[in-house]
Design goal:
The complex is a heterodimer of chains A (495) and B (324). Chain A is built from 17 helices and 20 strands. Chain A has 495 residues and is α/β, with parallel strands linked by helices. In chain A, the strands form four sheets. Chain A has a six-stranded mixed β-sheet with strand order 6-7-8-3-9-10. In chain A, strand 9 and strand 10 form a beta hairpin. In chain A, helix 12 crosses helix 13, helix 12 runs parallel beside helix 14 and helix 14 packs parallel to helix 15. Chain A is globular. Chain A starts with 8 loop residues before the first strand and ends in a 9-residue tail after the last helix. With 324 residues, chain B is an all-alpha fold. In chain B, 76% of the residues lie in helices and 0% in strands. Chain B is built from 15 helices and no strands. Classes of the chains: A alpha/beta (495), B mainly alpha (324). Chains A and B meet through helix 2 and helix 3 of A and helix 10 and helix 11 of B.
């Protein structure tokens, strides 16, 4: 740990309470010149609140933040910038209806350094007059980062920067971030990804329950210690433990998909999903997996191909059709699935109500019992009883899954359910998915983290360029095999 | 060029629609000429100014239900100050009214930003407040207007070197509208304030994180709306010569024209020219229906249907374009 006196950024004893929820109790963070410091913590540990306080979005109840030795009076993101602290948030801070160039003008950012950084980050062909609305999410993140770099900050705060970035861009981004530190700048790197932290960070500061519980130098094998710190007293089972694969069931599959095609991305996908099976879906960004899930959930129509449920051909023209056929989607974007300003209970009960009664009063007691079971199974933190949007991301994700469990699920379509979630919640979700399958549900599980295939699935189909290019058993599904297959390099014949 | 056409397709479409409607008018009423165009422009002027003010607020992600009431305050204030006044004094009165418009808009904006009460509630409340103020100033139509002001919106514009037969076809109302709007809006649109207005309408959180002073920009949007409402109120006094404490149906008409003009309710997208063209389209439709002696009640139904149909048609075209 550097001496507080030479730290470029020094936060001590920061506390913040929202109503009944004490989000931060005693958080501290020191970042020295030329360092990349990882800020880690399970969901609900107070990371987001801490980031908001550092960047001036929120004011702390107590504690202090010093930047370059002076007491920070940062009151807004723009104010933070004047102090030399530039944040890049999880959601790009770009105006959708303005062009790239206008977005730069809006923040008084010079064009030339921006162009340099965009090229360096792997998007040399970006048109400055392109509308932000028309760009894919990955490009927006690059634009947001390049804009931050062009401001030449003393401290760069990167919040889950690489989530949803394709692998080749991640490599470039990490290189650029490390180079910033080597040039004497400082970086706060908020992330859940150990490989990235090991690659570029010097130290890691770990938060748990609103408290800074550790400040460690990054060295080989530090992952387990960090996991232990994040979990606290809880048992830290080995992260890489694989489950034994199960024999593929025979008979009529719960879900049979043949030659499915829609739009330009999904060209020809076929697979069988059996009762009691968790089938992983592996694909790089934009290989057709979004379209596949949308077709199966009834959000979008297929232009060719068939979907059979329990041997009966089905065509969904509305999500209600898919739900009636027992197919339920947990979307990647939690905001699409939840009624953000309603209570946890109501959110879990909504699909339940749809099933119990079409008309008349809602049977409150039955509802309450089912909801209570679901909340307990998932260990949802219900301290913030009122509105779902006050919950942390991980707890919100659990609510989206809980609503279908309360309902009794037949076929669950999970689209990247663990994105941006801490390790403890992830494990709860794996266990939950496993339990559901053991009770006879069929689960289709798309994940952007390759390591999850071994942890949660029986088999995995690999989709590349809109087609199934490989089917891999969980036992053989190590990351390098999956990665090769996902890039279409697999030599194995498609199943 | 292609990109420019794509970006302004909606506005161009409206311009074509307006041209077609004017031709149709000539067919319906062969006598329709410079005089008809002049009276159309004069009738449309207060609607157009209210619409521009509304468009600015809607682009910034808000709505102002008090726009017609502010016009009434401006109209009666102008008429009372100008009644029996000399030319110089009338000029001062005009300036005072414009300042009053900015002040009323600022009050709206400050209330919305400081109290965090939704804009639709605040401006609805202010609708009643401004309405009461207008009636306190003048409880029946009255007052006066300076002759030079009245002359600004009537008749053709004399341009040196062009025959009067040609300049008669350029109504002063249109020129007045174009000059005033260009003088106020173009500098704003080109400045950082313009970018900020679009930014807070498009995504207030991203705007805040990009360093935009969101509250101040929102207040500015309402102040600009107040300024245009004052101009609209003056234009009523200009064409009638008196102050009107009870405003015309400018509020709903301005929302209609803003939507028809391609500004997205919710903010961030659209311009000023489209809504202005939409005002003229709606006025021309009404004029044609009157000429065809359609029952006014039926005419209202037809107008509403046209609006929904055009906006729906536009949405269908937009989805087609995205799929292609």
């Amino acid at each position: 740990m550097p001496d507080s006196a030479d730290a470029v950024l020094d936060a001590k004893g920061v506390a913040k309470r929202f109503g009944a929820v004490q989000a931060l109790r005693d958080a501290s963070l020191q970042v020295g010149r030329g360092q990349v410091v990882a800020l880690m913590g399970a969901n609900g540990a107070g990371k987001s609140t801490f980031v908001k306080i550092l960047t001036g979005v929120l004011r702390p109840d107590s504690g202090h933040v010093k930047i370059k030795g002076r007491e920070s009076t940062v009151a807004s993101p723009a104010g933070a910038r004047a102090w030399g602290l530039v944040p890049v948030y999880q959601e790009p801070s770009l105006i959708p209806d303005l062009s790239v160039a206008d977005n730069l003008r809006l923040g008084d950012t010079a064009m030339e350094p921006f162009r340099h950084w965009v090229a360096e980050l792997g998007l040399p062909d970006l048109q400055p007059d392109a509308m932000i609305r028309s760009l894919p999410l990955a490009s927006l993140r690059i634009v947001d980062l390049a804009r931050a770099l062009a401001m030449e900050p003393d401290v760069l705060l990167l919040d889950e920067l690489t989530a949803a970035l394709p692998t080749d861009l991640v490599a470039r981004v990490l290189k650029v971030v490390r180079a910033q530190a080597d040039a004497g700048r400082s970086v706060i790197y908020v992330s859940h990804r150990f490989t990235e932290i090991a690659a570029i960070c010097d130290r890691a500061t770990v938060l748990r329950d609103g408290l800074t519980v550790g400040d460690l130098a990054i060295e080989p094998g530090i992952e387990e210690r960090i996991v232990e710190m994040m979990l606290g007293g809880a048992v830290a089972a080995a992260v890489t433990e694989a489950r034994p694969g199960r024999p593929v069931a025979s008979g009529t599959p719960r879900l049979r998909v043949r030659g499915l095609r829609t739009g330009t991305r999904l060209t020809d996908v076929s697979f069988d999903l059996h009762k009691g099976e968790v089938l992983g879906v592996v694909a790089l960004e934009g290989q057709g997996q979004d379209e596949l899930f949308n077709v199966l959930a009834g959000n979008r129509r297929a232009s060719a191909g068939t979907v059979e449920v329990d041997g009966r051909p089905k065509a969904f023209s509305h999500p209600a059709d898919a739900i009636a056929a027992g197919l339920t989607l947990v979307p990647g974007d939690r905001a699409h699935a939840l009624l953000m300003s309603r209570s946890v209970r109501e959110n879990i009960a909504v699909p339940l109500i749809a099933r119990i009664r079409n008309w008349g009063a809602v049977p409150m007691r039955e509802e309450a019992a089912k909801v209570a079971t679901a909340v307990e199974t998932l260990q949802i933190d219900t301290r913030a009883q009122g509105e779902v949007r006050r919950l942390s991301g991980g707890n919100q994700q659990k609510v989206t899954i809980a609503r279908w469990i309360a309902n009794g699920v037949q076929t669950l379509l999970l689209f990247d359910p663990t994105r941006g979630i801490d390790i403890r919640t992830k494990r709860q979700i794996y266990a939950l998915v496993r339990d559901l399958a053991d009770q006879g549900a069929a689960v289709l599980f798309y994940t952007s983290e390759l390591a999850e295939i071994r942890l949660a699935c029986d088999r995995a189909v690999v989709i590349f360029n809109g087609r199934v290019v490989d089917v891999i058993d969980a036992a053989e599904a190590d990351e390098s095999t999956l990665m090769r297959a996902a890039y279409g390099l697999s030599e194995r014949a498609p199943a | 060029m292609r990109r420019w056409i794509e970006a302004n397709a909606w506005t161009l479409g409206l311009a074509v629609l307006l041209a077609v409607l004017l031709l149709a008018t000539k067919v319906i009423q062969p006598g329709f000429g410079a005089t008809g165009l002049d009276s159309l422009a004069r009738a449309a002027l207060p609607f157009a100014l209210a619409t521009v003010g509304m468009a600015v607020v809607v682009i910034a992600g808000g709505i102002d239900l008090s726009v017609a009431a502010m016009m009434a305050v401006a109209s009666v204030t102008g008429a009372v100050l100008m009644a029996g006044a000399g030319d110089g004094q009338a000029l001062l009165a005009v300036i005072a009214v414009l300042a009053l418009g900015i002040a009323m808009g600022t009050v709206n904006g400050v209330l919305i930003v400081v109290t965090r009460v939704p804009d639709i509630v605040v401006t609805l409340a202010m609708l009643f407040v401004w309405q009461g103020v207008a009636l306190l100033i003048l409880n029946a139509p009255g007052g006066g207007a300076a002759p030079w002001l009245r002359a600004m919106s009537a008749g053709g514009v004399a341009l040196p070197g062009l025959p009067q037969g040609l300049t008669d076809w350029l109504p002063r109302g249109v020129v007045f509208l174009a000059v005033v709007t260009a003088l106020i809006w173009v500098p704003i649109r080109r400045s950082k304030l313009g970018l900020r207005l679009y930014a807070i309408g498009s995504d207030p959180l991203a705007a805040f994180r990009s360093g935009v002073p969101v509250g101040q920009t929102r207040i500015a949007a309402y102040a600009i709306c107040g300024l245009f409402a004052a101009l609209g109120g003056l234009s009523v006094t200009m064409s009638t010569g008196i102050g009107e404490p009870i405003p015309g149906p400018y509020l709903l008409a301005s929302v209609a024209a803003v939507v028809l003009g391609g500004v997205v309710l919710g903010g961030g997208r659209g311009g000023i020219l489209g809504p202005i063209l939409a005002v003229f389209i709606l006025r021309t439709v009404r004029m044609d229906l009157t000429m065809l002696s359609v029952d006014p009640n039926v005419a209202a139904i037809i107008e509403g249907t046209i609006m929904v149909a055009v906006v729906m048609f536009g949405a269908i075209l937009a989805t087609r374009g995205r799929k292609a």
